[in-house]
Amino acid sequence: MQTRHLRRNGEWDSMIEQEHQPVTLSVYNELKNKIVSLELMPGQILMVQQLSKDFGISRTPVREAVVRLRDDGLVEESDGRKFRVSEITWRMIDDIYETRQALEGLVVSRLAESLVPEQIERLDSLLGQMRQAVGQGDLARYFELDDEFHGALLRIHGNRVILSCIGRIKDQQQRIRFLTEGARDRTEESLAEHERILQCLHAHDGAGASEQMRLHLQLAREDTKNLLMTRYPRPMVKD
């Protein structure tokens, strides 16, 4: 009798969890978008009770969504009952770019040996669109294409672990991009860096492609930190 009772409880818990999943995902996506776009600022307190009132739902799916955001690194626990949007720190910026240098440097070194003409044409097309965006002064479009270019390299390579890791990093990097939005425009330098990466891929030069990718990301890191120090003399960006 006890065994059946426990199993029924397990089935009930599973049913409740399944009912919460669509709601949890909706709350998760909305909060994530607000965090990434800085509508919810670094350090801002998130109260599960207040959020449940704002969304007009129970606390359980809200808490599940916030815990998932914590696991993504976008939220951190403030105390036993509170959460807050995670801070953007100098260490975080260094970690993001160091990780990207290691992983994306590896990706292009491998791709130089295996790219087929159709894949090269896709990368050439993206780079052509990036040139057009620079010529038109369309920064938003350039950044979209920049993400597409790097994403295309990762998808062609096809390592799911690398894709997942970079995907999580991108959420944090998007927050940093919003912080520096409207600051100094380095799209022409960035475009030239992408051109050198692609030239190495055309030449099947894996070592050269890796070196150029690492250099590109190193320069992007230095520029990002310089922009943040200029814009925020006493920054929200903490050590």
UniProtKB/TrEMBL annotation:
InterPro entries, per the entry:
GntR_C (IPR011711), TF_FadR/GntR_C (IPR008920), Tscrpt_reg_HTH_GntR (IPR000524), WH-like_DNA-bd_sf (IPR036388), WH_DNA-bd_sf (IPR036390)
Q: Does the keyword DNA-binding apply?
A: yes
* Protein name as it appears in the record: FCD domain protein
The record's annotation in PANTHER family points to: HTH-TYPE TRANSCRIPTIONAL REGULATOR LGOR-RELATED, TRANSCRIPTIONAL REGULATOR, GNTR FAMILY
Q: Keywords of this protein's UniProt record, alphabetized? A: DNA-binding, Transcription, Transcription regulation
Query: What is a single molecular function from GO for this protein?
Result: DNA-binding transcription factor activity
> Does this UniProt record's set of keywords contain Transcription?
yes
Gene3D superfamilies with a match to the protein in the record: GntR ligand-binding domain-like (1.20.120.530), Winged helix-like DNA-binding domain superfamily/Winged helix DNA-binding domain (1.10.10.10)
HTH gntR-type domain ranges (all copies): 21-88
